[in-house]
Every structure is written in structure tokens, then in C-alpha cells.
Amino acid sequence: MPQESALSQESYDSYSESDESIIIPPFPPVLANHWLGEKLGSGYSGSIFRATHIHTHQTVALKVQHISHENLTNRYERNFYPMIQGGVGMPKLWAQGVEGCWDYLAIDLLGSSLDSLFRKSGKETMDLGSVCSIAMQVISRLEFMHSRGLLHRDIQLGNCVVGLPPNDKLIYMIDFGFSKRYIDPYTHRHIPDSKAKRDFIGNYWFTSVGVHCRGKVPSRRDDLEAVALMLIHLLTPRGLPWTRHGVPKSDDAHDLLKRTKKSARPEDLCRGLPSEFEEFLRYCRRLKFYDQPEYGKWVEEFRELKKEQGYPGGEEFVWPPPERAKVRMVRPPAAAAAGTLRRSGGPPPEDLRRILDDLKKLELGDNRQILGDRSNVKEAVRNAQEDARRSRGAVESNTTQTTDKGTRSRTTTADTDDDGDGDIPPPFMTMKAYKLSKLATQVSKATDNRVLATKVTEFIKVMKSNTSRTLTKDGFGFLDALYKQLTDPDVFVIAPPMRTSRSKGASADESHNTNGTRTSDRERSNAKLGVVARLRSEVGDAKSNKRLADMVRDFGSVTNRSTGRTITKDGFAFLEGLAKQLEALA
Ligand SMILES: Nc1ncnc2c1ncn2[C@@H]1O[C@H](COP(=O)(O)OP(=O)(O)OP(=O)(O)O)[C@@H](O)[C@H]1O
């Protein structure tokens, strides 16, 4: 069953697949010398507890995950804590490791997430003063993370939490499970851009349009765009348009969400809001892949906006928000109502009122919306309701087709694109598993056949160097990644397009003869030896990546169904033939 995160129950976060074959035992009362107390949250791969050290009595947040979880985010997260220690609003890592079957991280105990504070307030929108504080602080946190060569990649309200007193006005960033180095630690260079489409990593609501809808490689600009979307969301009644129907439960619903997100224009999303928000969103989208954002400029813009609008204080996030001061606002009331007018240099209030009245009289046609005309709000609400009805229909009609893929907001395959640092496996992983999972990651990044060929050769080497030639979960992970790359036409610079007659729905153990036609059921041998021997003999004749993909799938499938799951002599010969053929097709 998909495992639901605490956050997803009500709003933003995700679902993930979990391996049904693994029975997760109950959490122990004591772990790594900590008494486990109240559960603070459950997430993608585990749970977080308030925990007290049995000797020092120090209270921490213990993030606990079962080591057999297929996507152990602690494994990635622990690599990044050392890079951010000492930064303002960065949690301190006190201890980490594996005890028994539990992987744990002991971090600073913090307060509530912005998501939870906002939901509990019961308000439709957050007050502008608080949103400006969030803007200033989160942009500064990202500036710090980026200065350490790290992207967050999962900006959302649930991952911004306030500290405990006396740090309760400070926003902390948490959850670095999807973070990634964008500066190579060895060359000190920015990671390269790529035209190949990638599975997205992040969350449905706030991940940038480029990364989520266009499959682009994330960089600093995308973290910032996520902040912009999060701020606009907080100021919009019922939130951003694509967040209104909950987590998509099918591929079709996800596609619809992406289309809505992609087509939403900044001016529509920000109608009625101070211009800074639209400008910030546009700015983020204009940034180039390698650009360094002007963090300081935007922090100052939001500081100024907060002050101008009569909200007390500066960056500090005070919750619940204090009364807005009844001081005369710098921005004239009419300009504030118009919202999208520039903060400074506008005409005096009287002139402005006249201009707006004249504008209203203009014949702009029925469909043209006028800035600040509140009648549009009604229409917008009507449209949104209509939209909601339509897409609810789409979601409902699709729920019957829901696949495990459709329930994910976070891509579980591609999150392994961080290679981890160094060649030392985490303590709970064997060297073989570690090498295989690294190879799987590399394969999913490969963009031509030659690289795939070398990865297959390395795979053979790892499998042969081990006393056990059993294809484990990580070995299958490699084959899955390879299959996916071979079938994805976007991945290849050179993609020999030779179609086989195989139908899409053909079962995994069906095979082809050398002419590319499907073998009959009678011809087909279910015995592993027979199938693998045939694959071995046919691989040299495969003339396309698609055909090779089918063979990889058949090989994985037949090995999976065999009792020993070992790679036989024929199996190795098939893999060697595969590497050779990939070279030939490169
Ligand atoms: N240090 C902390 N102190 C207090 N509460 C925390 C802390 N870290 C997390 N939480 C709570 O737990 C929730 C989930 O945390 P987090 O996002 O780190 O876990 P997750 O979603 O399981 O992460 P992952 O995606 O890496 O599996 C947070 O929204 C927050 O409410």
C-alpha cells in the first residue's frame, strides 16, 4: 500500500511506494541511547520523534527510518548536514548512524512547520507581513545553502519550521533528503545542464515549472522559484490553482496538474497582490541555469514592502502575527488596492483614482480583465469552480486506473541521482549493494549507448567479483534503470529507430526470434536456462535500443522467477553481448 506522509494527509506532501514484502517492526522504545517520545511527524521514508538522551537528557528530534526502506532518505541527508552546520536557520546534527535495523539522525528539536501553523490559523490567506518575513528568511537560507554548494530541491511549507523559544522567530530549513550538490566538490564547477528530460524531484505544488513540467535539471533558480510559488500560494484564497484538488492520484491527474501549472501566467497568479510577488516570480523564471540569484536585493525588496505596508518588525517571523500598525502607509490606499502598481514614483492618490475611473470606462471588450476591478474576482471564482468541477471529474474518472506511479509526488527512481560522497558504503550496505546502486544511478544519467555499454561491463565485473552471483534488489535496480534508459527516446543523442513487432502489452517473458517476430507460446521455454540461452544467442542481432530493452526486461524477469536468482554462464554471456551491441549501436 502507498504510505502516506503526515503532511500529505491535509495538504502538500507526498505518497511513496513501499515494499510490501518487508514487514516493518514497531519502533523501539530506546534507540541510540535516546528514549523515543512523541511522534512529531511521519514522512516519506520514516518518522520523526521527540527523543531524550538517556544520560545527558538532551532533547532532540530523531529521524528514524527502517534500513530496508527502498528509499532511505537519511542516507542522503546525512551527507549534507556537515556542509550546512553553523548556518543561521540550519538544524544542528547531533548524532547519526544505524542501530539494529534502524537508521537515525539526531537533529535539533524545532517547532511547528509553516504548513501546520497556517492550517491551524484557519485563515484563507496569510497576512502580508508574515509572508514578507518568510520571503526574507527563506531566501536567506537558500543563499546560505547555495553558498555551500547545495540545492534544497524540496522547498515547501512543511519543510520550513520555526525554532523553539528563544528561536521561535527564526525559520529553519529541514528535510535535506532531496538535496543535491550543484558544485562538484572535486572540480569546484557548477554541474552541467542537460537537454535530456529527467524525472522530477520535488513536490507537486511548488517545484518550478522548468523542473516539474519540462524535466529540466534543477539549479539555484529553481529553489528560488519554489519560494516565489510558495509565497503566492499563501496570499491566494484557496491557494495556487493546481493545488486545489489535492495530490493527483493518477498519471492523468498529474498531467492535468502539470498543464495547469505550466499555463498559469504570473500576472494571473499574482492579480491583486503587491507587484513584488509577480516581479519575483518573473525574475526567477528569467534566470539562466548557471546564474547566481541576487538574494540580497530580494530580501531588501520584501523588507521594504513589509515596512511600507505598515507591518512592524523586520525579518523575524512572529506568530500569531501582531496587529498591523495603524500608521499612515507610505503606499497610497488606491495604489495598494490596485496592487500591481509600482511601489514608488506612482501618481498622487487623487490622480490615481481618476485614472482608474477612466480605465473602467474604457471599452475593452467583455473578456478583458481590468486591474483592480473586483467584479473580475467573482468571475475568477466562477471559472475556478468550473475548473475544479471539470478536473474533479477527470480525477474521479481516472482513479480506477491509478497505478503506483500515479501516487508519487516525489520520484523514487531518480532521487538516487546523488552519487553520495566517496566510495565507502554506508554501514548498513554491502560493498556489492553500494556499487550496484551507484551503477544504477549512473545508468539513469547516461545519455548515450557508449556510456551504457561501459556501465553494463562494470555491472558484469561487480557481479563476477562477488562470491554470490545472486541478483539482489540492487541488481534488479540496475536492470530496471537500464531498461528505462533504453526505452526512453529522449535520452539518446543517437537513437536507432528500428521498430520491432512486439506489442506494448507483451508479457515480460515473451521473446522474439532473430527476425524480430514474437515466438509462439509453444516455442517459448519457461525454463530460465532456455530463455537466457536464447537471449544470449539473439543479442548480437538486436538492431535497436527498444529491442535491447525488451531483452533486458526478459532477462530480469526470468531471473527473478528462477529459484536461485543467480546469473548463470549464459547470463553473463548475454550481458557481455549486450555491452558489445550497445557499443555497436552507439
Ligand atoms: N527537527 C525537527 N523538530 C521538530 N519537528 C520536526 C523536525 N524535523 C521534522 N519535523 C516534523 O516532522 C515533519 C516531517 O519531517 P521531514 O520533512 O524531515 O521528514 P520526511 O518528510 O519524512 O522526510 P523525507 O522526505 O526525507 O523522508 C516536519 O514537517 C515537521 O513537522
UniProtKB/TrEMBL annotation:
Residue spans of biased composition, Low complexity class: 399-414
Chain positions recorded as ATP binding sites: K63
Region spans: Disordered: 375-425, 500-526
Keyword ATP-binding in annotation: yes
Record keyword ATP-binding present: yes
A Pfam family reported for this protein in Swiss-Prot or TrEMBL: Pkinase
Biased composition (Basic and acidic residues): 375-390
All residue ranges annotated as the Protein kinase domain in the record: 34-318
Protein name according to UniProt: Protein kinase domain-containing protein
Protein species of origin: Marasmius tenuissimus
Taxonomic placement: Eukaryota, Fungi, Dikarya, Basidiomycota, Agaricomycotina
